[in-house]
């Protein structure tokens, strides 16, 4: 709105001085911000980088697992990537003498809560699709060296819907690697959660694959926001 | 550094597709010559000179630009190119004199952007200029260079994301982008063919490079690159061609000739390593073994001798293993060779010799302290077993580095006679070797707790509150408690818990040597993280601080090189990579040297 100068009025004079002072301060602040680059600016915004892993108590995990003698929780860690991703690793006991840790990993992708957050997002911490045949092959080779690996023909279901898995076996032990991407916003996920990715790796003695998958089948997500289970689980 | 004039005039065989999806080298028109069936090399014109200028009129824009920025090599190449186009042309006498601005628009800013790799910005600046001066036209040379740079960018980007067919298509659309002076793109094209299972075309591409690009080093690097995809016979052919075809004056191609032998040695050592680790026990024939022994002896290669030592140790041929570990230790003393020596002597039952071999490193190297456990198995911090003499089943498993067996034996021992602090600690070390650090940390913590409950014995303290043996200036020997704390720290490092570990380290009950080792590892981890975060000054700061604690290993030397490179301290980066490469040349060190060199000399 255009100003109407009222000369001589002490009130209007004060107002004008006030406005000029405010404008001057704004310019000064802007200049300070611009010129402070020499000492107070770094090239990359590290808020988008993953933080180092930090240990958390099992009680602080966003998941509960059924009690298991073979696969107890040994340790838990978490890290953030930007304001969007939270990742958790739950290390489980490994009753075999095979290399590698048994674990459940959970990545929670939330929606940014500001325009800036929407504009500056970290790269996605998990690929979609979660696996291709090539990446699955490379992963199983790394996870289960010298074991016979088989991709399960049919998916299985847990509380959060279908998931896929591979099995690996040698003469004594069996292992499973299962993965799941939850993106059902109609029923399962609250508005703020974009996706949840789960991956489970377990090796045990013997050949009972169902027993090895039991923790994954029975897990329950306890995120701060409500995640509902999928319907029609057939009594699971 | 001078570059043969011919270099910039050599186009790596045109890749114009000979059909849909067919990325064969172009059947170039006049001026092309066949070097091998199906492969042709265009001799002129140079990159970016798609159409010849009108007779009697030579485009000197690029020439003057190179003169202005003082790039002698490119200047020389450009002169040669222009002479090839017009034999009667002579370089202008005022090439280095300050030039009045050419009528119209000075193109320097666009060339500067192009040189800095800012192709999109250069295009935008040209468009803006044209908006201001509609009658102005950028020079053909500038436009061609922009096209070439864009194609090169497309090739790099497609290759980085493994879109191999796109690499081939982009190269076919713009063959100039894969010339000798853009060798990286030529390598990427060959790799794309190989990944697309077009082995013949991959081979043809490598063959064209080694027979046309004149620099011996580039030919040699090409052979190393090709070794990932080609058969030994093809590599042999490539080496022969690289050592003889189209030699350039002043180049020494003997290094090309030796590449094949080096590759062969590498392959044999790899197979030896696989055989030693038990992955493929029968993978090495007697002839191979004898050959590699000869090579290792000739080159006095300590790492090769250690690999041989482990091979024989795995075969339980302890005498032969001892001989190779001794040899390695003689050539280049290290805790790695001493470790093998300790275990080989132990396998022979010569415990005194084993202890003597360990003496120089005892308390200084965790590797040696671990190996000594096979010689003098821990009896438990508080009494433990007083078992019979001679290597136990567990010792033998450790000597074989069979850590799965270690876990089995410890499990059955615990099931039979209950846990001891020493057994739990050993379980921790074996779990660490099995890449199960979280369980290892728990095992060390359990050992710690158990040691605190067990009554202290001898000079060693058993619990976390135990006294430290640093008194009277004696060399520090870690107590059981310190060993457990150290084990936990190593496990935490492996799980990536750097923040927590940094916080807890000052209060941790460890010997100063153990603390220094963990601190150095923490700084190395943080330096790696800083590099990923592009905090290059931090990388150098951390590496410098680490170097005060312990010598810098080669992987961190390479890291330092990349930090310097990214800070645009190219000369220092080159010196760093070169010093690492001169000691032992690997793919990583060669890559650092090559890329830095190319950056310094604008040789992309």
Tell me what you see in this structure.
The complex is a heterodimer of chains A (236) and B (604). Chain A has 236 residues and is of the alpha+beta class. Chain A contains 5 helices and 11 strands; from the N terminus they run H-H-E-E-E-E-E-H-H-E-E-E-E-E-H-E. Helix content of chain A is 24%, strand content 30%. In chain A, the strands form 2 sheets. In chain A, strands 1, 3, 4, 5, 6, 7, 8, 9 and 10 form a 9-stranded antiparallel beta sheet that branches. In chain A, strands 2-11 form a two-stranded antiparallel ribbon. Mean pLDDT of chain A is 83; it is low at 1-15. A two-stranded antiparallel sheet of chain B has the order 1-2. The two termini of chain B are 15 Å apart. The longest helix of chain B has 23 residues, at 254-276. Helices cover 63% and strands 1% of the residues of chain B. Chain B has 3 domains: 6-99 and 139-252, no CATH class; 254-376, Alpha Horseshoe (Serine Threonine Protein Phosphatase 5, Tetratricopeptide repeat); 392-463 and 478-510, Serine Threonine Protein Phosphatase 5, Tetratricopeptide repeat (Alpha Horseshoe). With 604 residues, chain B is mostly helical. The A-B interface holds A 42-44, 46, 49, 52-55, 74-75, 77, 91, 93-94, 97-101, 146 and B 279, 403-405, 407-408, 411, 434-439, 441-442, 495-500, 529, 532-535.
